[in-house]
């Protein structure tokens, strides 16, 4: 049986969790679509479904705001083509805020 | 011959190169050249986790070893703040203290948390204090707390202001108003500057009170770079070496060291992540970057860093090449405690600034000849002698209500 959803876990740290109701780990299921889920698509999904406060502190244009680090399975997303990374099942994607001053 | 435009190619080479996209898809760690990289530094150097962590720890130790400020068994005051940098600093110290090799750290760190977030609610400030206390406990460090507002209002009662329990810190609803009350309607730049001067003085006072000869601050490269540019803007160029150098020795008894000045925030945040450390954070209110020179410089440097990864290190390294003014006397500025310069033979930049201000604000007497006019202006000009304050503090001193400073 082909699963019709993509289960991944999200992590938030360094203050990014404060924008998500203080949750550090969130497990989500993304509905499978024709297109492959990329981090770029995921960011839009997060903005619409999870982000609770001040979206400008997390998203800027079509990427994360400068100052937010993204790690895919403990690997810097710059090594996996950033927003174009194609998400796989069971991936763990962590967002760490480094915004200065609080 | 006219050669305008011939040197365009050369001109380009003079400027910093914008961020280039390096294909790192099949790269290996630049250090061990075998492992798969997990981190990219400066947008181009891939590191594996192990090499990254050992390089980070090495960088910290190298700076300590190079300066040898803290001697064995001495107490060192650690200026603890919220955020990534402080948490990483505690971890560096804890792992260094727990070593059994000759590289073990041999001084005794004492933490100081300065409570000064008076823009937040009392409840939020209490929560931060509690989290900070838990963090210090996790690392097994002794910590002291001081309320910055109380210190600014009355710095003579320091011993009663230092608490070792976070519950004892006096936090009042009207702290922001009390702070505003000691100043005469300053702009945000001056206000930030005044609070910073107090904070600096508080650190030195507490260090003396607790018998610490050395203070560690958690300033990162970005803080140093924006501080340096701020200094230039505020007429504090003379103090760049003190404010941004590795070692600040303007006080004869207490030395301030900035052990994290060569780190970027990314390195520190990733170090925390790989070590499973979570810094204390809170949602600060949105700051308007155009409200003060300090905020603007921070924004300028971090925006530039985004596309030009060499920005911060270029600024910091340039600052490192500056020296202190050798023409200084015994006297120190009453506010910032930096040594005051003695009158040089030639006109200094502050004197030149004063002179041009003087000339442009005089009403010329048109009844006399040009020669007499300029002679008159020159004779009447009396270069302000900063007997008590340095050039920059002289500008902010009129905004202070307290007389004794």
UniProtKB/TrEMBL annotation, chain A:
A family per Pfam: Urm1
Cross-link Glycyl lysine isopeptide (Gly-Lys) (interchain with K-? in acceptor proteins) residue location(s): 102
Keyword Cytoplasm on entry: yes
Pathway(s) per entry: tRNA modification; 5-methoxycarbonylmethyl-2-thiouridine-tRNA biosynthesis
InterPro entries: Beta-grasp_dom_sf, Mopterin_synth/thiamin_S_b, Urm1
GO biological process, one term: protein urmylation
The keyword rRNA-binding belongs to this UniProt entry's keyword annotation: no
PTM per Swiss-Prot/TrEMBL: C-terminal thiocarboxylation occurs in 2 steps, it is first acyl-adenylated (-COAMP) via the hesA/moeB/thiF part of the MOCS3/UBA4 homolog, then thiocarboxylated (-COSH) via the rhodanese domain of the MOCS3/UBA4 homolog.
Intracellular or extracellular location(s): Cytoplasm
Function summary: Acts as a sulfur carrier required for 2-thiolation of mcm(5)S(2)U at tRNA wobble positions of cytosolic tRNA(Lys), tRNA(Glu) and tRNA(Gln). Serves as sulfur donor in tRNA 2-thiolation reaction by being thiocarboxylated (-COSH) at its C-terminus by the MOCS3/UBA4 homolog. The sulfur is then transferred to tRNA to form 2-thiolation of mcm(5)S(2)U. Also acts as a ubiquitin-like protein (UBL) that is covalently conjugated via an isopeptide bond to lysine residues of target proteins.
Family: Belongs to the URM1 family.
Protein name: Ubiquitin-related modifier 1 homolog
Provenance organism: Aquatica leii
Automatic annotation (TrEMBL), chain B:
Cell compartment(s), UniProt: Cytoplasm
InterPro entries in UniProt: CTU2, Rossmann-like_a/b/a_fold
One MF annotation (Gene Ontology) recorded for this entry: tRNA binding
Chief localization: cytoplasm
Pfam family for this entry, one: CTU2
Keywords, alphabetical: Cytoplasm, tRNA processing
Source species, domain of life: Eukaryota
Alphabetical GO biological process terms: protein urmylation; tRNA wobble position uridine thiolation
Entry's Gene Ontology cellular component terms: cytosol
Pathway: tRNA modification; 5-methoxycarbonylmethyl-2-thiouridine-tRNA biosynthesis
Function: Plays a central role in 2-thiolation of mcm(5)S(2)U at tRNA wobble positions of tRNA(Lys), tRNA(Glu) and tRNA(Gln). May act by forming a heterodimer with NCS6/CTU1 that ligates sulfur from thiocarboxylated URM1 onto the uridine of tRNAs at wobble position.
Family that this chain belongs to: Belongs to the CTU2/NCS2 family.
Protein name: Cytoplasmic tRNA 2-thiolation protein 2
Organism from which the protein derives: Aquatica leii
């Amino acid at each position: 049986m082909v699963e019709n959803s993509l289960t991944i876990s999200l992590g938030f740290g360094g203050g990014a969790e404060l924008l998500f109701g203080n949750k550090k780990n969130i497990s989500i299921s993304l509905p499978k679509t024709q297109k492959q889920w990329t981090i770029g698509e995921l960011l839009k999904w997060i903005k619409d479904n999870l982000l609770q406060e001040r979206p400008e502190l997390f998203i800027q244009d079509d990427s994360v705001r400068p100052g937010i680090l993204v790690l895919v399975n403990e690997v810097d997303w710059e090594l996996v083509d950033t927003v174009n990374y194609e998400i796989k099942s069971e991936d763990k994607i962590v967002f760490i805020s480094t915004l200065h001053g609080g | 011959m006219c050669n305008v435009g011939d040197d365009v190619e050369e001109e380009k080479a003079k400027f910093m190169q914008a961020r280039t996209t390096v294909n790192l898809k099949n790269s290996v760690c630049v250090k061990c050249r075998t492992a798969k990289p997990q981190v990219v530094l400066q947008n181009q150097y891939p590191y594996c986790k192990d090499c990254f962590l050992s390089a980070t720890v090495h960088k910290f130790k190298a700076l300590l070893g190079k300066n040898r400020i803290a001697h064995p068994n001495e107490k060192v005051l650690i200026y603890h703040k919220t955020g990534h940098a402080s948490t990483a600093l505690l971890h560096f110290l804890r792992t260094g203290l727990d070593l059994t090799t000759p590289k073990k750290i041999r001084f005794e760190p004492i933490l100081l948390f300065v409570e000064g977030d008076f823009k937040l609610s009392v409840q939020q400030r209490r929560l931060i204090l509690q989290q900070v206390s838990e963090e210090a406990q996790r690392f097994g460090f002794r910590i002291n707390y001081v309320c910055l507002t109380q210190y600014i209002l009355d710095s003579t009662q320091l011993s009663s202001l230092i608490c070792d329990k976070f519950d004892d810190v006096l936090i009042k609803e009207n702290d922001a108003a009390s702070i505003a009350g000691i100043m005469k309607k300053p702009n945000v730049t001056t206000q930030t500057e005044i609070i910073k001067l107090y904070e600096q003085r508080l650190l030195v006072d507490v260090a003396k009170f607790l018998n610490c000869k050395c203070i560690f601050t958690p300033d990162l490269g970005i803080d140093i770079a924006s501080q340096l540019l701020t200094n230039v803007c505020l007429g504090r160029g003379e103090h760049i070496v003190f404010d941004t150098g590795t070692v600040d020795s303007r006080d004869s008894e207490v030395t301030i060291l900035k052990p994290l000045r060569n780190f970027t925030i990314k390195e520190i945040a990733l170090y925390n992540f790989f070590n499973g450390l979570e810094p204390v954070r809170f949602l600060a209110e949105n700051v308007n970057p155009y409200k003060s020179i300090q905020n603007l410089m921070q924004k300028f440097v971090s925006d530039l860093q985004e596309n030009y990864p060499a920005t911060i290190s270029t600024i910091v390294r340039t600052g490192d090449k500056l020296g202190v003014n050798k023409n200084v006397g015994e006297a120190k500025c009453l506010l910032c405690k930096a040594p005051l310069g003695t009158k040089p033979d030639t006109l200094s930049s502050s004197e030149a600034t004063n002179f041009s201000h003087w000339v442009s604000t005089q009403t010329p007497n048109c009844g006399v000849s040009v020669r007499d006019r300029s002679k008159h202006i020159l004779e009447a000009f009396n270069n302000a002698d900063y007997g008590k304050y340095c050039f920059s503090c002289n500008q902010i001193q009129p905004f202070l209500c307290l007389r004794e400073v």
